[in-house]
Specification:
By secondary structure, the protein is of the alpha+beta class. The chain is built from 6 helices and 4 strands. It has helices spanning 14-29, 64-69, 72-88, 90-117, 122-168, 170-185; strands at 5-6, 37-41, 48-54, 57-63. It has a 4-stranded mixed sheet with strand order 1-2-4-3. Strand 3 (48-54) and strand 4 (57-63) form a beta hairpin. Helix 1 packs across helix 3. It is elongated.
């Protein structure tokens, strides 16, 4: 969906080789035995992500925007953060949490709508029940997101920051977080450091 191009080691230039080498070194430090694939997608936004079914079968991808805006130290902090997500199993965990929350919302809205709809007229009762269920699903989904999913996701992000600091070093993680903060304050075209990637 993002249009990520996987880096081919045989065709990689010097900067792409640096990216591959950095990801693989950090992965080893994190105890990941199956080396992640590394990819780049073309976008001006400052972004990176890690995905995959397990820590030993994952993909780390970065945008061209983050490559142009960050220097090597800052980028290493970001990569360490993403690999911490993989090492912690966050991709699967968040999918399971969201799946359990969604199942609860569907089940609870079904029961509550049955209880609230009532009435003797079958057709009218069915319509009322359906509308009640839709409203309940929206309300319960919002409540579950605020009380469960968002706080848990935020905790996983803090944990990945701590893991990134252990892997890349505290100073690189701090630099990465500061660069990310600066990127949301400044216009997209304004450089904040000597870029890791030539424009």
């Amino acid at each position: 969906m993002q249009g990520v191009q996987i880096i081919d080691v045989d065709r990689a230039g010097p900067e792409e080789r640096w990216l591959l080498s950095t990801v693989h070194n950090l992965a080893r430090e994190a105890g990941i035995t199956g080396m992640p694939e590394v990819g780049i997608w073309d976008s001006p936004e400052v972004n990176a992500f890690c995905t995959g079914p397990t820590k030993n079968s994952s993909l780390v991808a970065v945008s061209t925007g983050i490559l142009r805006r960050m220097n090597h130290d800052e980028l290493e902090g970001v990569l360490a953060h993403e690999l911490s997500h993989a090492a912690n199993g966050d991709m699967v965990t968040m999918t399971l949490v969201q799946g359990m929350v969604n199942s609860f919302v569907i089940f609870a809205s079904f029961i509550l709508s049955r209880m609230l709809a009532g009435g003797n007229n079958r057709n009218r009762s069915g319509f009322v029940e359906m509308m009640t269920r839709m409203v309940l699903q929206v309300a319960l989904s919002t409540l579950a997101a605020v009380l469960i999913v968002c706080p848990y996701s935020r905790w996983r992000e803090f944990r990945a920051d701590a893991g990134g600091a252990r892997l890349a070093g505290k100073n690189k993680m701090i630099s990465a977080l500061q660069a990310l903060q600066d990127s949301f304050r400044l216009p997209q075209g304004a450089p904040v450091a000597a870029p890791a990637w030539p424009a």
